[in-house]
Amino acid sequence: MKKIFILVMIATALAACDNPLEYKPENKADELIVNAFLDAGETSHLVQLAVSNTEYVRPVEKAELRFYVNGELKAKTSEFEDIEWYGDTAGKGMCFEASFKAGDVVRLEVDADGKFSAYNEQVVPPAPMVLGIDTVRVNEYLRFDFRVQDTEPAENYFRIKVDDHAEAIYYDEDGKELGRASHSWMKMLNIDNDPILNGGYINSGDGGFEIELGTPNTYCAFSDMQFPGASATLRPMVDANSFGLMPALIEGTKSATLDTYAIATIQHLPRRYFYHIKALNMLRNGSGDLALEDVQIPDNVEGGIGFVGVSSSVSARFWLGTRKYDEIIYYGRA
User: Fold this and answer.
1) Whose CA is closest to 257, among 190, 326, 191?
2) 131 burial class (0-12, 13-18, 19+ CB within 10 angstroms)?
3) pTM of this prediction?
4) pLDDT band for position 70 (50/70/90)?
5) Do 240 and 137 share a structural domain?
6) Residues 114, 15 share a domain
7) Pair 50, 198 in one domain
């Protein structure tokens, strides 16, 4: 691990990505930053790239990305795309399409600006042992019940997330379909009443450091050492009225229909990925007298810096309803 200063960029609105990071290492020489969170349950993936030293962080000017599954090239791109966060450009990244599954060996390679070459290779972890995922209305909240089983003897690490997924159909003034769009936004979870996720701890039985009491478990990560040899039900909640954000409109739109879904996901994480999330919690929320420059962020990129997380997941999709919008005024995009 390297001691570094870190600038955290909040999760982008792209469904395949959350929490890309920009690093400023102690080494004054330029280094390539490669950050990605790849999941076997997704087919669209995003990689954020930049160049950093102690003086600045700048965008990569040109790059080629290659992605391999079990030694076979599955994706290759040199195209950059804007990363958006609620309509604003929050950086640039490279997107690619690829499928992989538990047990596969995946390798991400990046060549950039004619002088940088970096890569990460790892084995995709198995899917979590999930007994069920349900949802129930509790006053103004939707509660998501994740029932998960401990798989002894090894300690396993997990993360829970819920996405607001919207699918829209747009129509012109004559009622003719203009096109369709979909988007997903990751929700902030209320875990105040969950005995495993709350309390400020991300517990682990392997002797690693713990997050100090009172530090929010922002990324909803946990270990099955909290229920050894048994099953547990985790119950995060989301404001029920916060679902249903409209994707970007198409020019000429006068009306629309919007189907809204909640996608509840539990990810099985490798140990290093889990500790990466623990460090992000410290940096995002602070922890007692902890100085940010003392936080060590696990990194796993050879030939550069950054973190490539690979997980397997189980998801459940819940339809929340359809809305019709009869009078829409399109103002264009800034």
Assistant:
1) 326
2) exposed
3) 0.79
4) very high
5) yes
6) yes
7) no
